[in-house]
Amino acid sequence: MDYTLLKSQREFLEIPHKYTLDVAVYQGGYGSGKTFAGSLLGILLCIKFPGIRGLVGAQTYTLVRDTTLQSYFEHLDNIGFKEGADYCWSSSLQKLSFKNGSEVLFRHFDEPNKLKSLNLGFVEIEEMSDIPYETFKMLLGRMRQRKKKSWKNFTYRIFGHTNPEMQRGWVYKVFVENKSPNYRLITAPTTQNIYLPEGFCEELKKLYDEQYYKVFVLAQNGDYNSGLVVKDFSSENIKQITYQPEMDLHISCDFNVDPMSWVLAHKTEEKVFYFDEIVMENTTTSKACEEFLHRYPNHKGGIIINGDASGDNRSCTSEYTNYVIIKKKLLSYGYDVQIHIRPYNPPIKSRIAAFNARVRNAEGGICLYIDNKCEKLLYNIYNLRYKEGTSRIDIPTYQQIKQSKELKFLSHPFDAASYLVDFYWPITL
Length: 429
Ligand SMILES: Nc1ncnc2c1ncn2[C@@H]1O[C@H](COP(=O)(O)OP(=O)(O)OP(=O)(O)O)[C@@H](O)[C@H]1O
Ligand SMILES: [Mg+2]
Hints:
Layout: H1 7-13, E1 21-28, H2 34-48, E2 53-58, H3 61-79, E3 87-90, E4 95-98, E5 103-108, E6 122-125, H4 133-140, E7 156-162, H5 170-177, E8 183-188, H6 200-207, H7 210-216, E9 249-254, E10 260-267, E11 272-280, H8 285-295, E12 303-307, H9 318-332, E13 337-339, H10 348-359, E14 368-370, H11 375-383, H12 398-403, H13 412-424
Parallel strand pairs: 1-7, 1-8, 2-5, 2-6, 6-7, 9-12, 11-14, 12-13
Antiparallel strand pairs: 3-4, 4-5, 9-10, 10-11
The structure holds adenosine-5'-triphosphate and magnesium ion.
The site of magnesium ion has 3 residues, from α2.
């Protein structure tokens, strides 16, 4: 084998620390050598640590089979490994087995539960930003193949590659914002790949607008603040908030079925403190109540329900039924329950203005705080945007949600949280 690696590829392969686990993401533009580097690393680990068990996966199996697996075969061929002698591929097991006992499973991550029983030495993730954070966390828990005595300087490795995210997603949070010392993000612009045909990048430059070129060719993070619905939210708005059993507890609801989104808060005269959220997929109001009672079985203060005004108690929409369900259920539990909703829904832009004014007012005062526990609400704050050039919120379509499941949590948790603010501190535009 006679490869000369690109600078970013070298950085990706070499570990600069002594932790027992290395987590690396190669964030590259189109054609920046992502697949090449990932599959090469997988093979090198199989050779260096006989008996190691690796998993290669992507959100869909087609992606694994058509790109990553092909790249494994190309490398094996270039190294001079022969199928049948040095390694075997089983398409029924989707497994590559090496003569030295190492093996690599090729899987999709669509049903992550199926991977729960594996003990692994390495994991390679194709298009990391497309897989849900939950899957990533589950994979972290799989890194526990027993080390063999012959393995010198062994480090468990999770590595992957990705295009930079257009939205600020979990990859950005985990690898940039709250980075641990054994987490590494390596940036690889396409322009650095000398193995591409001449003029390749110039062609892309003609094709894409500036922002797109910046993200998908130069591999820089997107402008994550542009077009955001919630403006000026900062780390000052994030705070550890302790639930107070004696205080009034607000449940602010959006009754979408999938996901049902409730946020829980305390409030004072001027300030609101979101300390928890109940976001459940494919559920019912009654089940969400049970979850609430399970988490807060001994609340002493009052309970105030806020939410969508189409649930006004003079109408008989399904939301009305929802409020009745909650009230009945909590009353039966001995709780003191009141419902505070507007007689009608204000225009959504007024509700957004009310929320933004609490986040930070013109004098810089902050009246809205969120605990990190409200993961989905924060996801909305960082990602809910207007459609480019319009004042309409860019709500993900069914098709987009099918491709990227995380998107289904966009919009409803924000709606839930903002109903409360709009009720107590309305702004009329
Ligand atoms: N170190 C290297 N030596 C030789 N060729 C390389 C090297 N790195 C990458 N290449 C070649 O550059 C081309 C692009 O690489 P690769 O397919 O890995 O990029 P990618 O970032 O995965 O692209 P995509 O965005 O399409 O997924 C391929 O033809 C690959 O073989
Ligand atoms: Mg690729």
